[in-house]
Amino acid sequence: MPAFIYSKSTSDDHIETVVMYWNRRKSEWQRDLTKACIYPTFRGTARTARKLFNQWTDMRPHLDCVGAHCLEDFQSRGCNVHWL
Predict the structure, then answer these.
(1) Residue ranges per domain, the chain?
(2) Whole-angstrom Cα distance, residue 84 to residue 78?
(3) Is residue 34 scored above 60 in pLDDT?
(4) Distance between CA 12 and CA 46 in Å, rounded?
(5) CA 15 → CA 7, 18, 41, distances in Å?
(6) pTM, to two decimals
């Protein structure tokens, strides 16, 4: 089941939430969910997300998160994926 890794970061005053997606080919965060962000299996996605979470030393509880999400469920909710 295809999946992707995302990161949510909220400002201290909870006004703006920024969602970034992990580009597995470039090994960097980006604003758009593209084909380069999609992992073929959820297991591989979860493993990489765990590694990224453990490397995030300046994480702020309740304001930041790193997680994995199923692509099919994401698309079924009407969310757009930018295939570049």
Answers:
(1) 3-76
(2) 19
(3) yes
(4) 27
(5) 17, 10, 34
(6) 0.79
